[in-house]
Amino acid sequence: MMELLNPNDTQKQDVKILVVDDREDNLFSIETLLEKDDYTIVKANSGRAALKILLQQHDFSLILMDVQMPDMNGFETANIIYQREKLKSIPIIFITAHSYNEEFIFKGYQMGAVDYIYKPINPELLRAKVSVFVELYRKNLQLQIHEQKLLRVNASLKREIEERRASETKIRLLNKQLVENNNHLKTVNEELDRFAFVASHDLQEPLRKIMLFSDKILLTGTVDDEVSRYLQKIIGSSQRMQALINDLLRFSRHDINTDDFIEADLNTLVNETLIELEVEIEKTKAQVNVQHLPRVPAIPVLMRQLFYNLINNSIKFRRKDCPPVINISSEKLTPSQINGNKPLDVNYYKIVVTDNGIGFDSKYSDEIFRVFKRLHSYHEYEGSGVGLSICKKIIEKHNGFITANSKLNEGATFVIGLPEKQSN
Questions:
Q1: What is the DSSP string of 136-203?
Q2: Domains in the chain: how many in total?
C-alpha cells in the first residue's frame, strides 16, 4: 500500500496572511496585532504590489485589504485576484474607514469579500476574525489530505484487484475498505461544513449586529435610564458570548493538557452563570438552590458553559403548572465508589443537578448526549439540540463523566463526575 499523508501535519503548516494597505503605519499596526499568533505576515503597499506577490505565492490563508488605495482600489484588486483559478479560494476581508450603505457593501461581497473590518481596528475583533478563517484554512488542508488519502487508496485497490483477480475474498475485503474510506470522507466534509457555518455565520454575525444596533440606540441619547441599563446588559452579554466563542474556538484547535487547568471555585462559576441567566430566571420565577461546591482543577470557560447549558436546559423544559426548581449539590467519591474505567487512585467530586421539569423517557438517557438529538419538536421548544452534547464533550476534556436519569413528568437528574486532580 502507498504511504499516506498524516492529517496531523496540517497543524504544522505555516499560516501566511497577505496584508494590503498603502499606508506603512497601518501595515505595521496589523502586523504587530497578529504576530503573537505566529502567523507569517506578507505586506504589500498597493494593489499592484499585491498582485505581483500573488504571481509567485498562492498559499495564503487570508488577505486583509484596505478598500481606499490610490491607483487601484481594493475592489479592483480583488476582482483581478479572483480571475485567477489558483487564487479563488483565498478569502478576502476588506478594511475600511467608512460606514458604507448596503449597496456599496454588496458590491464588496460581489467581488468575493467574506467580511468587513472598520477603522479604527478593534484588535480583539481583528484577531478573532482572522482566527476563524485560519481555522477554516486548516480544515480545508485536512480535507485535501483526506481526499488524497482516498485517491491513493482507490488507486492501490485497483492495482491489487488486477493482481489478485482470482481471489474473491481479497476483492470483498478491498471493497469494504473502499466503502469505509468513502464514509470517512463524507464525515470529514460534514464536520467541515458545520464548523464553517456555525463559526462564520450563526455565531459571529448575529452578535456583531446585536452589539452594533444596541450601541447605536444608546448613542441617540433618547432612552431613559432603565432602558439604557438594559441595553448595556445586552451589550455586556453579547461581549461575553463573543469571548466565549473565541475561547471555544481556541480550545478546538489544540489538545487539552494540564497547563490549561486552574484551581477553579465551582461556586463562583455557578454564580456567574446565574447572572447570565437572570432574565430567564426572573421571567420563569425559577428557584435555583446551590449547596457548597468544591474547588477543582478545571478550564473555567468550559465549566461555566457546562453549568449554563444544564441550568438553561432545566428552565427550558419546565412544567407549565409550576415554576422550575433546580437543586445543585456535591459530594466526594473515593475510587472504590466510582464505576467504569476511571483511574483507581484518584478521588472524584460528584456534582448533581436536579429539576422538577417535564423529564424524559429513561430509554433516551444515552441518546440525549448525541449532537443534534432532540426529544421534542422545534415547535414545542427552541434550541439546536447541541447543548447536552457540548456538556458531554466538556466533561470528557476534564477526564470526568456525565450521566442522566429521568422519568416522564418527574424531572431530570444529571450526575457529573470531576477528578480531584488532573493526571499528567
A1: HHHHHHHHHHHHHHHHHHHHHHHHHHHHTTT-HHHHHHHHHHHHHHHHHHHHHHHHHHHHHHIIIIII
A2: 3
Render pLDDT for 70-102 as a digit per residue (tens, 0 to 9).
888 888 888 888 888 888 888 888 888 766 656
Can you say whether residue 154 is alpha, beta or left, with left for phi > 0 and alpha for psi between -120 and 50 degrees? alpha
Nearest to 131 by CA among 89, 98, 91: 91
- Report the chain's terminal Cα–Cα distance, integer Å: 37
Q: Supply the range of the domain harboring residue 134.
A: 130-252
What is the pLDDT confidence band of residue 139, given thresholds at 50, 70 and 90?
Answer: confident
Q: Are residue 363 and residue 265 in the same domain, yes or no?
A: yes
At 210-228, the pLDDT tens digits run 888 888 888 887 878 888 8
Whether 183 and 191 have beta carbons less than 8 Å apart is answered as no
Report the relative pairing of strands 412-419 and 348-355 from DSSP bridges.
antiparallel
